[in-house]
Amino acid sequence: MNKAQDFLGHSRNDGGFGVPETVGQHVRRVSELATGFATPLGIRIAAQASAELHDLGKYSPKFNGYVQGMPGFASPDHWSAGARLALALILGGTNNEPAMRDAIRLAIESHHTSLTCLDSTDESMLRLDDLLRNTRRPICEDISKFVLHWREDGFDHNRRTAEKLSRSIAGAMLDVRMLFSCLVDADFLATEAHFNGNAVDPYRPRSPAPTIDFAIAANHVECFVKTLSQPATKVQSVRDELRRCCVDAAADLNPHQIEAALFALQSPLSKGVILADELGLGKTIEAGIVLCQCWAERKRKRKLMVICPGSVIIKNVDLWTAPIAAPAPIAAPCRAPSHSFARKQ
Q1: Which end of the chain is more exposed for a tag (fewer CB within 10 A), N or C?
Q2: From CA 223, how far away is CA 279, in angstroms rounded?
């Protein structure tokens, strides 16, 4: 009978002349990186669980045969088992609404495919069971056997997590996206470090990325811009003013507001987006950033229309007009009753 240390997570590095990596070694390395990424986000336990379960299916003779290049062994599905086990081991929440364990399941299930929608636990179990029965790829054997080896390697997540998903659907999916990124980035970096190694130095991680100080980075950008050839035109003066406003405003913007605006501006598959942050998180600011960018990019058609409830017009008129009041004339607000533009007040 195979022991946990007999199962390989990756083949020999150094072009086949180095050393292999066991499943336990790889999982621990991914867990260390993922929890480091996730701690500032407040999802450390979820990241640890995701990392320790993501390659559960590699405790399999089928995967072991594949990773060693044995004839007749194709790559098996080695991630669905961990996703399915996460739903059984991670406690907290109810079965009919998404909870953190469903986010963990989704991150694991998606880390070799693509990120899909967040389902309730009951829906996830049914879909995963169907996937495990009907996939065309070779399915790893009985999950209970994997769990024995997994626990023999020192892993166990039969615990309750106090970490919770955001209450809104959009917020919960953002939580999932962050957890997914922590897992995928950690998995990639740990795998890269193994295959960069050799028999003498088996694990060679890349150097940590430097931290970025906004003030220093902005100063470097300004210095670079000054070296460029810039004709003294009215257009250039507008560009300079816009850049200055962006730099000044960036110190007052929250990261999630900048992220939301970038999402709206960079969405490649639609002509619009819905910003669905909760009350008080700055949806008006986010939309204002998008308006300013759209105005700056347009050369001829620079008419922008803001449609909103009448109370919002009075409450936020200064907030809407301040960013673009200097370069663009602002029309007086008009009210259209009954969703009709027939009458102007």
Answers
A1: N
A2: 39
Q: pLDDT tens digits for the chain (345 residues)? A: 567 778 999 999 999 999 999 999 999 999 999 999 999 888 999 999 999 999 988 888 888 888 888 887 877 778 777 877 776 776 554 555 567 888 888 888 888 777 777 766 666 667 666 665 665 555 655 677 888 888 889 887 666 667 888 877 778 888 888 999 999 999 999 999 999 999 999 999 998 777 777 677 777 877 877 777 666 677 677 666 666 666 666 556 666 777 777 777 766 556 677 887 766 677 777 787 777 777 766 655 667 777 776 666 655 556 555 555 545 555 666 655 554 444 444
Confidence (pTM):
0.60
Q: Which of 160, 157, 168, 163 is nearest to 41 (CA)?
A: 163
Closest CA to 50 of 62, 58, 65, 38: 38
Looking at the DSSP assignment, which residues form a beta bridge with residue 10?
A: 21
- Give the C-alpha separation, 276 to 257, whole Å: 12
Number of alpha helices (DSSP H) and beta strands (DSSP E) in the chain = 13, 2
Domain spans of the chain?
Answer: 4-195
Largest CA distance in the chain: 83
Q: Kindly give the interhelix angle for 234-250 and 214-227, rounded to the nearest 10 degrees.
A: 170
* DSSP H/E element including 307: none
Strands (E), the chain: 8-10, 21-22
| Contact between residue 197 and residue 14 where contact means Cβ atoms under 8 Å apart | yes
The label of the residue with tokens 């054997």 reads 141
